[in-house]
Known about the structure:
The chain is an alpha/beta fold. It has 2 domains: 15-55 and 94-208, 3-Layer(aba) Sandwich (Rossmann fold); 60-91 and 213-396, Rossmann fold (3-Layer(aba) Sandwich), CATH 3.40.50.1100. The protein is 43% helix and 18% strand. The chain has helices at 28-41, 45-59, 69-75, 94-108, 121-133, 143-148, 150-158, 173-187, 204-212, 214-227, 242-248, 277-280, 318-325, 336-350, 356-363, 365-368, 390-396, and strands spanning 14-15, 18-19, 65-67, 79-84, 112-117, 136-142, 162-166, 191-193, 233-237, 258-266, 282-286, 289-293, 330-335, 377-382. A 6-stranded mixed sheet has the order 3-4-14-9-10-13, with helices on both faces. It has a 4-stranded parallel sheet with strand order 7-6-5-8, sandwiched between helices. Helix 2 packs across helix 4, helix 4 crosses helix 5 and helix 4 crosses helix 9. The longest helix has 15 residues, at 45-59. The radius of gyration is 20 Å and the shape is globular. The N and C termini lie far apart (45 Å). The mean pLDDT is 95. The protein binds pyridoxal-5'-phosphate. Residues 92, 94, 121, 197, 237-244, 310-311, 355, 357-358, 383-384 line the site of pyridoxal-5'-phosphate (PLP).
Amino acid sequence: MIKSSYQQPDSKGKFGRFGGKFVPETLITPLKQLEEAYLRLKNDKDFIEELESLHKEFTGRPTPLTFAERLTKHYGKAKIYLKREDLCHTGAHKINNVLGQILLAKYLGKRRIIAETGAGQHGVATATACAKFGLHCVVYMGETDIERQKPNVFRMKLMGAEVIPVKSGSRTLKDATNEAIRDWVTNVEDTHYIIGSVVGPHPYPMIVRDFQSIIGIETRQQILERENRLPDYLLACVGGGSNAIGMFFPFINDPQVTKIGIEAAGKGLDTDEHCATLTKGRDGIFQGMKTYLLQDDFGQVREVYSISAGLDYPGVGPEHSFLKDENLVEYFSINDKEAIEAVKLLSQTEGIIPALETAHAIAYLNYLLPKTSADEIVIINLSGRGDKDLNTIMEFL
Length: 397
Ligand SMILES: *Cc1c(COP(=O)(O)O)cnc(C)c1O
């Protein structure tokens, strides 16, 4: 059923049966304070103006909507446009959310910022914003990831952030997240915790969605100016789901616009080495939220895999779980090999090297475009640029 007006989450932070606040009792009050501050500030004139001017002067917004002429010719079907989040400062959409949350922290009077990072992209965006605002920045990162992502570790340190190696568990993202939560519980008086995607306990999935919605708001205006009508299809890759929801949300009440989220099928859905949570997951509770999760027969969260570090996550934002069940967004998956081919395709037709995450959305054109016609319009959210992935791509090729 299509609702004429979409109102999510509810007052308890639930998206249907998903979402919520599954956290230690010590975090209930800070989460409540964060929610109250956010609900007040999102309508505050000074807050809105400060964020707008930051985006204009620092992020480089609005980002262009580029007509992909040669890629369109390649398929000979629907017109393809690219929303250029790769042109944001730091090379991806993550800065949209980080700057919003840094301003929240500033208005809340918090001088210390913590974050966790896997591939390092969210850590770099957070370190960037902290340097800009002169805030103390602590980034938790698994030891294994520190080893794998040296250039990003160096970037964060260069901008003055403290990178704390996490030695517990598998020494990757989920262990870093546990440490960050521990830190927040201890230092909540002066510390704001910046979560990097539409995940975690309420109100984070809502706040991050709203800050990323700038993508869809601009896209809507740009396509109306250019084509005088809405697109037929929106495509975006889904890790935690922030770039996808940022693109889809401003179109959520437009049923004529088909929204498609693309997950990573890694080495194949018939193996254990993928992270197609919405395709293969089951209900579970993880990192403060109820959502679809990849888990074993005992309900333990599984080790997951994708060639793209930003999609390599065993959960997904709770709103995506809801949107899937309500049939408001469709979800598919693309494997490593298809993603690499898509990197080559976009590089050679448009002169744009996409991030490996983004390449998953581009690869889906092979399935979608044959079904389209020349008078239709497809927009891909180009979530990030591929410079960070050159080594991985070279090794694969
Ligand atoms: C982190 C990242 C993603 C995945 O995160 P979402 O929250 O799903 O958007 C996708 N693309 C790029 C370029 C990223 O850096």
